[in-house]
Amino acid sequence: MAAYQLRIYTINRGMMDSWLGVFNGHIRPLHERLGIPVVSSYVNADRTEFIWVRRFDSADDIASKEAAYFASPERSALGDRPTSHIAKMEVRVMDGVEATAGVA
């Protein structure tokens, strides 16, 4: 069963536009190339939180996929650019739930 990561990042004040450039220009494409689809991403109204969801084939795949991401030359080339934007990071692993007939 698929597993998802809900990732909530508190972005340093005034850095959201810069973060979105790094995310959309580098992080999201690299995730897609490595088989870690980004299901959705959001910015809250006051523009201090960036919320996104990644999908994995199973919870067992998370560690190996993350290791491949951090070991990639593309991620290494970014250096501390991603982390320099982030004041706080929360990560929650969630299991997918199959649709159930008759549930309101």
Describe the protein in words:
The protein has 104 residues and is of the alpha+beta class. It has one domain: Alpha-Beta Plaits. Strands 2-3-1-4 form a four-stranded antiparallel sheet. A hairpin with a 5-residue loop joins strand 2 and strand 3. The mean pLDDT is 94.
Structure summarized in a few sentences:
With about 100 residues, the chain is α+β, with helices and mostly antiparallel strands. It is about 35% helix and about 30% strand. It holds the Pfam family NIPSNAP.
Query: Would you state the CATH class?
Result: Alpha Beta
Counting helices, strands and paired strands, the structural category is alpha+beta
Parts with pLDDT < 50 across at least 5 consecutive residues: none
Walk across the major sheet and give the strand order: 2-3-1-4
Q: Name the overall outline.
A: globular
- Specify Rg, calculated over alpha carbons: 15 Å
Percent in helix = 25-40%
CATH fold type: Alpha-Beta Plaits
Termini separation comes to: 23 Å
Main pleated-sheet profile? 4 strands, antiparallel
For the secondary structure, the number of strands is 4
Order of helices and strands: EHEEHHHE
Strand content: 25-35%
Number of domain modules: 1
Give the second-level CATH assignment, the architecture.
Answer: 2-Layer Sandwich
Mean pLDDT reading = 94
Tally of individual helices: 4
